[in-house]
Design brief:
Two copies of one chain form a homodimer.
Chain A: E1 5-10, H1 18-30, E2 39-42, H2 46-50, E3 54-56, H3 62-67, H4 90-102, E4 105-112, H5 114-129, E5 135-140, H6 156-177, E6 184-189, H7 196-201, E7 214-216, H8 224-238, E8 241-246, E9 259-263, E10 269-271, H9 274-286, E11 290-294, H10 297-301, H11 308-326, E12 332-340, E13 345-352, H12 353-356, H13 377-383, E14 395-396, E15 399-400
Parallel strand pairs in A: 1-2, 1-4, 4-5, 6-8, 6-11, 7-8
Antiparallel strand pairs in A: 2-3, 9-10, 12-13, 14-15
Chain lengths: 421, 421
């Protein structure tokens, strides 16, 4: 019988470094050809497994796989498709096992956030129930930094760096313009429920008076009066006011200030557009000229300004996932453990998927200042190492050189077609 | 009598490299202490000259002046204050001359765009009229790339690089998500009347199918039907559609699609927010999930991804301005001249301020594809060298290290205070 193969898929919102984990995983697996046959990737995440649309990564050159390390986005396609509970949709789970059996897949690597690790966990359960030997290993990923147990999530450090760098740069611009023109600058950042990304903007403030002058966290109910008072204080003192606002900012009624209306496949509201609301408020109530920016996908795809810490960790996690699988582990996820702050040292540990699935790590209240508009020293100490170091991609003709893989399909073996509901 | 002093001011919207020109100017002037005494900078641009709020740059260390080379924004403060015609507001011009006389200023360097070079020109005229010996030298700057005669404007190359890099990165993200989620991504960029910045997004497309799939130029009247048809074509063919839209996009009635209502001191409409309009249109008419981003100030302050060509040229222009002044030139502006495309070679020439003032250089129609949604090869050939090369700032703790100058005031000499109207 041929060597068992591995399946790898990317899930949910992609990041600047999810491909870095893929790179770590594939490069490491290729070093263990005695134990792992081929590495198949799911085309568009778990959907690729359900529809038997597998990509044969062995067709990719060593050079192209290496280039994944510095390529943003999800090289094999990702998806927002949450598998329902085992009882509700057993057919999907059984189909996965059928596909794995057909392609002799014994290793299941799932690279995603909390929702995705719930899937990984359920896949490991169904495999056990059906008596199919499968090593299920989750690989953490999410710009939201909201996975439990793990010290920080790969993908987050690079967004954090992008936001901190961008807010510092924009602040230099606004400071120059404030005398006769723009006095208010608002940058909207991601983070539905947890203010980790907004908090990262606070890193740009290294001494009193530095921007951002106000951070609006999703954790803190928006208080218009208190906010406007603080804006005015900043304008009086510094001549301008730079604001970071989380897309997840809520009012007293618990409603998002910017509810775009749509909902994604996970049932999450699609947000965007709180920055212009906050900016306009400053104009209407205080009369100040404003500018605002919405970073949206730019922040999570900004591989050009990725954090070296983030890149190193993302790679290490992909590598660790293979090592865990080779040790016969199941239903686990490699995690980043912080060993010390000064100097920053980290290592790789292991968490059980059962403990990770569907648990959201909120930002501790102690990371937000008492007035609710800034980060604390404890938060800074936590965040700072995560944006440390630069890891520039190669450039040609002024543009970063990212790889597009060949993504050659593995011939289908099952007669039954499967339609994803 | 002491050596004549120089005055330098930054005007209008700042850029990632206007300080680079200041650096070139100050470093060069410091090498000519036999001819140039002190370099005074206007605090908040020309307003600093009117109110006699001068900054003594000789108080800044060599190291801090060198750091201007990699610091975005306007280190001395800029302003949006257009001097009226000589006949309308002679008092302002005479006040300038009074301040220059009081501080023995014989060199006037004005770093700005078209409006600002109009001011430079008028200052040279009034000096002549009043018989005051003043060497007036303009230094070009504008992200809009709309100055005449000069091949390209410093500040533009770095915005162009930012936009091209960002759209490429976001496209990698959208491509990964398109199967089950986001199919439309819209990036709004600056450029009121000329589509230079929007065109720069087109550089990310190096082969057929690459993003951006659609560019919406201010030069091309927005045709909803034609646009939606093209979006649908792109979604069908590639699975997604990436769009760059200029803030200056207009409808058939000649109205900006996103008119924010406000107007700046130059009487220009304050724009922003066409991206969500375009995105929503794709949702309403075609049913696709979208994401959008508005880069706003992030694009023009993004020193972290500045173009090396741009940095080198901005520095050279600051340097050239001093050389022109030392040669006794007046009412001129150093310009960038393109010597060849392959390899790209450039040099410094000279233009008369009279020919530069208030003339807008539009993008040639031949730079936009016949269908109006892309750039042509001629455009690519023009733009590509301008984004070439990287020039990274130094980092500490994960953040770029930008300088904040001491900006020590020169003691006032005039009894009369001047209130800027």
């Amino acid at each position: 019988m041929s060597k068992p193969n591995a399946f790898y898929a990317q899930s949910g919102g992609v990041t600047a470094v999810i491909n870095t984990s893929a790179c770590g995983l594939i490069e490491t697996a290729r070093q263990h050809k005695d134990k792992i046959g081929k590495i198949y990737a799911g085309r568009n995440g778990i959907i690729g497994a359900l529809t038997e649309e597998l990509i044969d990564t062995s067709k990719e050159s060593k050079r192209d796989i290496a280039a994944l390390r510095h390529t943003p986005g999800g090289a094999f396609g990702s998806c927002r498709h949450k598998l329902k509970g085992l009882d509700e949709n057993r057919a999907e789970y059984e189909r996965l096992i059928d596909v794995f059996k057909a392609h002799n897949i014994r290793y299941f690597f799932y690279n995603g956030g909390g929702d995705s690790q719930d899937t990984s966990y359920k896949v490991s359960q169904i495999a056990q129930t059906l008596g199919y030997p499968l090593s299920c290993i989750g690989i953490p990923k999410t710009v939201d930094n909201d996975l439990p147990i793990i010290d920080n999530c790969p993908g987050f450090g690079s967004v954090a760096k992008y936001v901190a760098v961008s807010i510092r740069e924009a602040a230099f611009d606004v400071a120059s313009m404030a005398k006769t023109s723009t006095k208010i600058f608002v940058l909207e950042v991601m983070g539905r429920h947890a203010g980790w990304i907004a908090a990262a903007g606070g890193l740009a403030c290294e001494k009193k008076g530095d921007a951002p002058h106000i951070i609006l966290f999703p954790e803190i109910i928006f208080d218009e009066t208190k906010f406007l008072k603080r804006v005015e204080q900043s304008v009086k003192k510094h001549g301008y006011c730079v604001i970071v606002v989380s897309e997840g900012l809520k009012n007293k009624a618990g409603k998002f200030l910017a509810e775009a209306g749509g909902r994604d496949a996970f049932g999450h509201a699609q947000l965007g557009g709180v920055a212009p609301i906050i900016a306009q408020l400053c104009k209407d109530k205080l009369g100040h000229k404003y500018h605002w920016a919405v970073a949206d996908y730019l922040q999570r795809s900004a591989r050009h300004i990725a954090s070296k810490t983030d890149v190193d960790q993302a790679y290490a996690l992909g590598k660790a996932a293979v090592k865990l699988a080779l040790k016969g582990q199941n239903a686990v996820m490699p995690i980043i453990e912080r060993k010390s702050n000064k100097p920053y040292r980290w290592g790789i540990g292991v968490a059980k998927l059962a403990d990770v699935a569907n648990v959201e790590k909120m930002m501790p209240r102690s990371y937000i200042s008492r007035n609710g508009f800034a980060i604390t020293d404890a938060c800074r100490e936590y965040l700072q190492p995560l944006i440390a170091g630069e890891d520039y991609p190669p450039y040609k003709k002024g543009l970063p050189q990212y790889v597009v893989l060949k993504n050659i399909a593995v011939p289908k073996k099952l007669k039954k077609r499967f339609v994803v509901g």
